[in-house]
Amino acid sequence: MLAATAGLTVSSSGCLRQVRNIVRTDDIQQLSVTITTVPADADRQAIRIARHLEETLTAVGVDVSLDLRSDIEFRRAVLYDHEFEICIGHHPGGTDPDFLYEALYSRYIDESGWQNPFGFTDRTIDDHLVAQRTAEGDARRKAVTAMLEAIATEQPFVPLCVPEEHRIVRTDRFDGWDEGHLATRHGYLGLEPAAGVDTLRLAHLDGRLTENCNPIATDYRGRGTITDLLYDSLATKNGDGPVEPWLAESWEWDGRAVDVTLRDGCEFHDGTPVTADDVEFTYRFLQDTSLGNHDTPSPAPRYRGQVDAVESVESRTDHRVELEVETSPAVGARALLVPILPAHHWRDRAVDVVGPGGPSVAQGTTEAVATNNIPPIGSGPFQFGERTEGAQLILERFDDHFTRRPGVDLPAPTVDECRIDIHPSGDTAAQVVANGDADATSLPLGAADIDGVETPTGVSMRDASSWTFYCLGFNTRDAPFSNYRFRRLLAQLVDKEWLVDEVFHGHARPIATPVTDDWVPESLEWRGNDPETPFLGSEGEVDVDAAKAAFEAAGFRYDDHGRLRVRQ
Q: Which residues form the signal peptide (predicted)?
């Protein structure tokens, strides 16, 4: 009995020590956060924002480290692996506020791509996201306003600013630069070349398109301009203009169903006819790149929010296909903008990829996601010619494209060849256009390059509307970023007006909500400060005392050395 009692005492004392360890303050340590972004040679604005935020957080007692990654590594860390705490970068945004459904809907929390990389879950915002998809007219505008106001309250990410878009073009070699937005296919079709000009020469800053032509790979794809030249979609959109027929000759809406009629005689670049079966395959494939081979679907990392609107798709004849959507026609029309893939090339890519290399997709990586897709086979106005990895991509005119037919009132390719040369920086790209060695900069100039651009005779700068935005994103899967109070406090440590002036040299506009001007509600209009999370300071300098008081009012504590504490 004594032995048993002794054993019980020893055992109990061990438990008591564990209890004491739980309630002791030894595990209360300074809060440490990591900011993930890209280096200056990839995005000078992003790294400057990150360094300024590092200084501000350090001033208010947070231990900060920077994690600089290449463009591809950054996208994989944030969009595929979700291995980040705070990320700073350029979000593709959208001309319609429905892009936020893809960005924040809780069902996408474990998926890969632009669908909810922040791991955000909120039932009320889910309801708003769904409501704005199904409403129409004034009812939709009210639903969008409610959604935007709820997002501004929760701050799953902090929209910072919308950068201006400026590109340099040669007006002595081509006319018609004002007809199409240069972030879309329309910017490069329908141009009027001068006599003897048969090549469109683009100065490009991103070498990834010479390494990978996979239209569904978010780690390699930006805004999809080259994809739009290589692939047709049922519909097309010129900047923030309306959605209009493209590969589809016409369509008819009947409630939630859209009956699409394809143009006759269209072919893929390998000579295979484009049929309604390819359209049906595309939507099923983008919804599940494993084609049912996984226990759960493996959606494509791109176009998820668009194809998710499609409840069913069925080919009726070779040239008719019917899509039933769960949304209003205004939102459902966005589903018609995805690239149509040739089933005979992509069906075999539904197999799993085993082993290291390439992105890791939460739902299972298929060959469809991992392939570099070279050469790409589409049905677009240009076809793949050749490439020199890291240096050049050449596209050749597809002479059998429907835009070249008599009577088709759509912009068509007017040159034999589109040559895309890779340059190391924006100022270099602008210079080769000014020197006559290129016809246009295909990507917007960096903010630091705009004021120094020379425009001699025959050269002009073109500005265009933008729907992309810079943001500060949080991985809300983990504390303290799962706490909306903490996210709101971090939002108040960013002086957006100062960033626009100092980091973007005035070539951007600060925002409180990440939608185009037409959709900004009065409650979130910018009037010199963020109406929801105003900056705790002035002229870029944080008021340390005010910031610390705000953290303490939100339930956080500081130690005697002024360090913000968190339980590890």
A: none
Phi then psi for residue 328, to 5 deg, are: -70, 160
pLDDT tens digits, one per residue of 105-135: 999 998 888 889 999 999 999 999 999 999 9
Q: Are 176 and 440 in contact (CB under 8 A)?
A: no
Residues 505 and 450: beta-carbon distance below 8 Å:
yes
Residue pair 443/466 in contact (Cβ under 8 Å)? The answer is no
Q: How far is 529 from 538, CA to CA, in rounded Å? A: 10
Give me the sign of the Cα torsion angle 176, 518, 158, 481.
Answer: negative
Q: What is the pTM of this model?
A: 0.90
Using one digit for the tens of pLDDT, what is the confidence trace for 185-231?
999 999 999 999 999 999 998 889 999 999 998 888 877 799 999 99
CA atoms within 13 A on the CB side of 353: 20
**Cα-Cα-Cα-Cα dihedral of 276, 281, 286, 291, to 10°?**
170
Residues ≥6 apart with Cβ < 8 Å to 121:
106, 109, 476
User: Which residues, 6 or more positions from 257, have their beta carbon under 8 angstroms from its beta carbon?
Assistant: 322, 323, 324, 325
The residues pairing with 342 across neighbouring beta strands, listed in sequence order, are none
- Partners of 440 in the β-ladder: 169, 202
Q: Could you tell me the sign of the dihedral formed by the alpha carbons of 34, 447, 427, 439, in that order?
A: positive
Closest C-alpha among 73, 12, 64 to residue 39: 73
DSSP state, residue 564: B
Q: Considering only CA atoms, which of 151, 157, 184 is closest in space to residue 90?
A: 157
| Distance of alpha carbon 222 from alpha carbon 208, whole angstroms | 9
Segment holding 18, helix H or strand E: helix 2-23
- Kindly give, in sequence order, each residue whose CB lies less than 8 Å from that of residue 271, ignoring residues fewer than 6 positions away: none
Q: How far apart are CA 93 and CA 99, in angstroms?
A: 7
- The SS3 of residue 380 is coil
The DSSP symbol for 471 reads E
Strand partners, 375: none
SS3 452: coil
Continuous H helices in 167-296? 225-230, 276-287
Which of these, 30, 35, 32, 29, lies nearest to 49 by C-alpha position?
Answer: 35
Q: Which value, in Å, is the radius of gyration of the alpha carbons in the chain?
A: 26
Q: How far from 560 is each of 62, 544, 549, 555, 563, CA to CA, in Å?
A: 14, 15, 15, 17, 7
Domains assigned to the chain: 28-163+468-567 (3.40.190.10), 168-205+381-463 (3.40.190), 234-372 (3.90.76.10)
Q: Residue 268 contacts by C-beta under 8 Å, 6 or more apart in sequence? A: 274, 342, 377, 378, 379
Distance between CA atoms of residues 89 and 158, nearest Å: 11
Rounded-to-integer distance, Cα 228 and Cα 342, Å: 15
Kind and range of the H or E run holding 461? strand 459-464
The owner of tokens 């099923």 is 284
Q: Is 58 exposed, middle or buried (0-12, 13-18, 19+ CB in 10 A)?
A: exposed
